[in-house]
Amino acid sequence: MAAPPQIAILGAGIFVKTQYIPRLSEISNLLCLKYIWSRSEESARGAVEIAKQHFPGVKCKWGDQGLNDIILDASVLGVAVVLAGQAQVDISLELLKAGKHVIQEKPAAASTPEIETALASYNFICTSSGQPIWAVAENYRFEPAFLESKKLMADVGDMMNVQVIIEGSMNGSNPYFSSSWRRNFEGGFILDMGVHFIAGLRMMVGCEVTSVSAITSHVDATLPPPDIISSNFMLENGCSGVFVMVVSSSSPKIIWRVVGTKGTLQVERGKDNGKHGYLVSLYSPDGQCKSTFYSFSGVTEELKAFIQDISQAIVKVICPIHVCFGCFIFHSSTCILLFLLLSRMFGINVS
After folding, report:
1. Alpha-carbon radius of gyration of the chain
2. Please, which residues have CB within 8 angstroms of residue 33's CB and are 6 or more apart in sequence?
3. Quick one: which of 177, 332, 291, 269 has its CA closest to 323?
4. For a tag on the chain, would you pick the N or C end, based on fewer CB atoms within 10 A?
5. Nearest CA-CA partner of 61 in 99, 31, 35, 91
6. Max CA separation in the chain (angstroms)
7. Closest among 190, 208, 236 to 328, alpha carbons compared
């Protein structure tokens, strides 16, 4: 039996400490975590101390030399890039050029031109040095609730309308509230959070957004602008919908709802027996409702899929593009960037 692949994590922030390390520990039989890197020694050592509870052999790397050590280490097969959004693409391309498989946290890039240039570079890398995997992490596509809702869509008949209502809770009690890169990233929390909700929408309805118009506003002075977006969109199947997002609300609520000719399907974020997750409800014309709660497990499942892919060194062909999970790079990021474009224009409609 082949030895588990050795991987490294670039980044030592909140998401690495609270999600990557715990979730990787759940599948520790599938991998060996060799390095955790950060720009500063202090940050890297802090994350390594947490990781050693599950991966006692993990080593600490920091700064330019530490990054170069990882790039040159031929035993490292895959790397998770979990850094500030502004820095991820350039570092991912460095790793890909060295033949490393990469799973990069969202957002895929800061703009459409940036990701188009990056994809051109990636395609060149693939023609000259094999085909390393470049995956963009978007855990909503791996959540059991959305996988199940996609199956249940057949029971609602023809789609009549779609509603995505996001009333977030990005306030001082949220650990990401003070995140400097999100505040300095054009689009702010609308972009960083919105990527998830668009990914959930696409997963649920199974088709793409073809046009969008929106009005944005900035109400909460403690948040970067804009913090509210109200938009209308059209899907490629002709169905219309609304996407409304309030970054910080006093009464948080997150819902995806599809109204069809034979019923209505709703996915709502919530909690059951102390576990966070989603309630999937199918409403039939006779007034009956069948509901099932699914706990969060998307991060674990996406990391497991990446590890399995790099273990086989074969890209799973989920869609016709060379990037593993590439549909998110092309379509979901483009969709949210359309919303972002509207945010920049503050109320000018685009369709």
Report:
1. 20
2. 6, 7, 8, 9, 24, 51, 54, 55, 58
3. 332
4. N
5. 35
6. 66
7. 208
Q: Tell me which amino acid residue 215 is.
A: I
Q: Tokens standing for 346?
A: 């503050």
- What tokens were used for 11? 């980044």
pTM over cut 0.90: no
Distance between CA atoms of 120 and 245, rounded to whole angstroms?
33
Q: Beta strand 248-260 with 264-272: parallel, antiparallel or unpaired?
A: antiparallel
* Residue 201, both tokens: 């929408």
Question: Contact at 8 Å (CB) between 229 and 238?
Answer: no
Q: What helix, strand, coil percent values describe the chain, rounded to 5?
A: 40, 30, 30
Q: Alpha helices of the chain — where are they, by DSSP H?
A: 14-15, 21-26, 41-51, 63-72, 88-97, 112-128, 144-152, 180-184, 188-205, 298-312, 326-327, 333-345
* Cα 249 to the center of its chain, rounded Å: 22
- Model confidence pLDDT, tens digit, residues 305-326: 999 999 886 434 333 233 333 3
Q: For residue range 273-289, what is the model confidence (pLDDT) as tens digits?
A: 999 999 999 999 999 99
204 is written with which tokens? 């649920």
Whether the Cβ atoms of residue 165 and residue 254 lie closer than 8 Å to each other: yes
User: How many other CB atoms are found less than 10 A from the CB of residue 286?
Assistant: 6
Q: E strand or H helix at 187, and its extent?
A: none
Distance CA 255, CA 280 (A): 10
Three-class DSSP labels, 312-339: HCCCCCCCCCCCCCHHHHHHHHHHHHHH
Q: How many residues does the chain have?
A: 351
